[in-house]
TrEMBL record:
Keyword Protease assigned: no
Name of the protein this chain belongs to: Alkaline phosphatase
Stretch forming the signal peptide: 1-25
Keyword Signal (UniProt): yes
Highest taxon of the lineage: Bacteria
Keywords: Signal
InterPro entries in alphabetical order: PhoX (IPR008557)
Pfam families: PhoX
Amino acid sequence: MLNKKLLAPVIGLALLAPAALPAVAAADGVKVQSVEFVGMPAPSTPDEMAKLYTTASLQVTYTDGSVRSFPLTYKTLFKSTDKVGGTIAGVAVDAKGNPIMDTSVPNNPVPFVSDDPDSNSLMKIDGQKPTAKGGNPLTLITHYEYITNNNAGKSAYGVVPASMSRTTIDQNKKTGELVATDLHKIDFSGVDGLWIPCNGSLTPWNTHLGSEEYEADARAFEADPTQTYVGPFAKAYYQDDKKTGNPYAYGYLPEVTVKADGTNSVVKHYSMGRFSHELGRVAPDQKTVFFGDDGGNTMLFMYVADKAQDLSAGTLYAAKFTQTADDANGGAGTLSWINLGHATDAEIKAYIDKGVKFSDIFDTADKDTDGFSKIKTYPSGKTEWLKVKPGMEKAAAFLESRRYGAMLGATAEWNKMEGVAANAKDKKMYVVISYMEKGMEADTKKADPVDDIHMKKIKAGVVYQLDLKGGVKDSAGNAIHSEYAAATISGLVAGKDLAKADERGNTADDNLIANPDNIAYSEGLRTLFIGEDSGMHANNYLWAYNIDTKKLSRILTTPAGAEVTGLQSIDNLNGFSYIMSNIQHPGDEMILPDA
């Protein structure tokens, strides 16, 4: 049996790299012909299962016939419990920027510190001053998704406000080595705080696009506020026991812009809809955005901004899925897009500031009733009968995007829709379904309002590809003003469930993906990186999938129970390439097979 004591709490923001781009290593006139990741075996001993490590490499073939191998290394930048420039990286802070204290153990107050780092955006800011170390100055934005437990061992998930940090990074000009020199917590007081920031992305215009997932059910909150985290969250964030909070203030994409002087600004994009934002990924046109919507009975959304590089106003669409295939790779289907409406951030923020409630937007019934739509979607997961009140269509579309989308006929059966990545050259988006089950299976009991998706269960999950093109019209026949609208979706990389656990306790094939979550794509390497969040593998892995050769290579293994998060692929940053990857909660979700 694996000894849990072997698991060191390695929660790092890390660098996985052959630091120099392979092209740099080529002789004059010689070019890179192909690249291939040479994978590593799965850990086989208790000591290996308790470690974060890689023995993989990148093999590069050049046009002169020569071949070179670049070993991968994993180097920790810092842990969420570390102080960087005097600030604890993962510390939770209130609206005034002060640490939120854990007083669960009498006479021993300590600050809440996250053990769950997620999204990374490593970026270069033009005009930024050099660090004291003399290297290239870079900036790293990092999410701290939640606090697992308080000091007394009780769950603090959702109760303690989450945070982001802005870290100055020194990049060695010769080696590409990264060193964190100072860290500051990002101020979200101007946007009501930050709610469960999961994954995120770097926009084409060099800003960080964050997330707020698992939005609170505003209907449940109105009926009984104690059934959501909104109240405890607001009390902790404002350090005020009288605060009740507002569920409609959370569930959006925050955008962080870093300035040349090292400071930053923050906005929330209310016009991009409110749902369980895993992340948003911007297409190459710099105005079309696709999202992960994490949870059960969720929805596929697309947003088209009015202007490139400006996400403050646009049109939100929800997808209707028509299935065309069901196979071991995840099946396929076509997508039609339902226009939910157009809004600006300011218009939707005005509803929030007025204190609009669920009952201000919808009338409800408790059975089939003329004029009411029968739906089932997250966050309630229950069958509901709803009717939008006159004049509240815009509020419904952007504050209750999933409910309103389901009322208009969009498919609300996706399950655990997580990471999203963009392939610019081939005009594709990649979207993860971490667990293909539940709402995505056929409704054999005929209990749900609709049954658009009826796939064979693949609990180990699937990475799908969306084919993007221009000239697409919405379901009403109106033009969608984007050259990157998705018309079809099909399975690309799938896991394989096992009929019974293997000798290591795996319930999914250990040589294929299991429960993919974070994904990132490298244009230069033609490679899709896939990180796991699985209880079906004894150890979670980071995989490299070559989209041309279809080769899947294991390139990193985490300590048993840990999750791969914060995945970012960077092809060229001052002449160096990086793959950023964190781990969360090592030892928390362990399979413990008998030896």
